[in-house]
Protein 1
Amino acid sequence: MTASLRTPAAFYAPLAIGAPEPLRGQPVRLERMIHFVPPHIEKIRAKVPELVTQVDVVLGNLEDAIPADAKEAARSGFIEMARSVDFGETGLWTRINSLDSPWALDDIVEIVSAAGDRLDVIMLPKVEGPWDIHYLDQLLAQLEAKHGIERPILVHAILETAQGVKNVEAIAAASPRMHGMSLGPADLAASRGMKTTRVGGGHPAYGVLADDTDSDARAFSQQDLWHYTVGRMVDACASYGLKPFYGPFGDFADAAACEAQFRNAFLQGCLGAWSLHPSQIDIAKRIFSPDPDEVAFAKKILDAMPDGSGAVMLDGKMQDDATWKQAKVIVDLARLVSRKDPDLAETYGL
Ligand code: GLV
Ligand code: MG
């Protein structure tokens, strides 16, 4: 253990006297889409009670896309929304401004003071290293203690700087308060000097060209620009018991490309993505809920191997302890989805 980490006992101790015990595992929650709302707009706030029935997580955005002169209105709009709406099983998150901005301190102090008992997760943008998490961790513990908050507020980091990606494992390991991470392709592209102006998705020029043979025209296949980062994020999250997410997809008109990006992330291990437009809610729901045929086959594997060991053949395919674990991931997710979604519950038949 290096000196930069707390000892195991201290790691799980509250960071302020009277703050709640840190969690030792993730709460079981469905988070297929984190739906962004701009809380300074009253008309949008008025629709939140209806939105709560359609999405898994409502996130009040205070950071990028909120104009500088609306930062305070967004913060107070979020507090009003948090206090007045019944969120039930739907998660309530906020994305605060980055720690180097003039707004972050008031975002944290005011929101936790006024609505800390309602808030599930704070999304922290532009996380560069574990020091950012330690700062927020300590401050949250002090505020939780001061306001008698009984449930720890979790922290979700946006992975959107080159330095953050370099430090992804240390960020994941920084605190038991860590919920997970989202890939932020827009800021990350800028930070790395990538040559794209898109928010997520591929680029028509990024791909591989087939060999030059005499016979055919050379085929060009576009590749996923985010594959490497999603892979690193998923490994860091899975190693520390956190949840990985793909972030935003900016071209609202291109539903097919959004779906492809979300599906790649899902297949690589992500549990959800952001929805920035109502049309993306259904895309996320479809992609991040397991496919009914896969669920049926996974169920068959679990039924055929009641104690999860040995080897059996099913439909000509070999199953063993490892495929049993894969099947369990899918069936567990389907059970979770069934609790929220009666239509899918019926298709899964669990
Ligand atoms: C999200 O915040 C992004 O920068 O892509
Ligand atoms: Mg960003």
Note: The chain has a mean pLDDT of 95.
Protein 2
Amino acid sequence: MRFVLPKGRLLQGSLEVLRRAGIELRPPAERRLIERVGNYEVLLARAFDVPVYVEYGIDVGISGSDVVEERGSDVLIPLELPFGKCRLSLAMPAGKVVGPEEMDGYRIATKYPKITRRFFESLNVEVDVLKLHGSIELAPKIGIADAIVDIVETGNTLRANGLVEVEKIMDVSALLLVNRIAQKTKFEEINELVFAIKEVIRNGF
Ligand code: PRP
């Protein structure tokens, strides 16, 4: 079986939940991106690419629901995992706060252009979406955007940059992803994995 795991904040939780489910994976050493461990192969990818790898042929992946939603990937999601909990929110500089329905003509910086457009379209508000790849909080701070849509976990990054949360757009959690074809061709193995992870969760992961 081939697994694709995200670099970054979900990696430790991903390895731990799989380890407790009886699958001991070693992340690739140093700058290698693939590691073979017994019958398993582990790929490390950028968080935003994990659902894409699963859609196009890697058997199993772990990814945030924010990324799956943004990518709109055609994958199976047998389980929500009990880590990586945070939210995707609209935020803006304290002192300039208005509601999203009053943001006509605003420029919104985000790593999530599709979710952001959909959110404002649902309110019938026209905004200009500025796609950035990270450190989103910088954009309103230096005046190249009016607001941001980004992940909030503790809220520390917002506070440190003088931003306040205006509205939650979605709750986010890590998800187990399964390739549609693998679900058929590796039915037994995948069902065993899903069952084992369910047990881990039931026992209080
Ligand atoms: C994420 C997110 C926020 C921060 C939120 O960034 O984009 O910047 O974490 O967490 P907090 O509410 O606990 O402060 P990440 O570290 O993933 O890096 P990024 O700047 O590349 O998005």
Note: Residues 2-84+173-202 form a domain with the D-Maltodextrin-Binding Protein; domain 2 fold (CATH 3.40.190.10).
